[in-house]
Amino acid sequence: MSIWNDISWVEGIRTPFLNYFFYNISLTGYPIFLFLFLAFGYFFWSPQRFSRVAMLLFISAVINSFLKDFFQDPRPPAEFMLDEGTGMSYGWPSGHAQIAVTLWGLLAYELKNKFITLSAIVFISLVAFSRMYLGVHDLGDVFAGLMIGSFILLIWHYAILYKNFLKNSKSDPWFQSF
Question: Whole-prediction pTM value?
Answer without folding.
Answer: 0.87
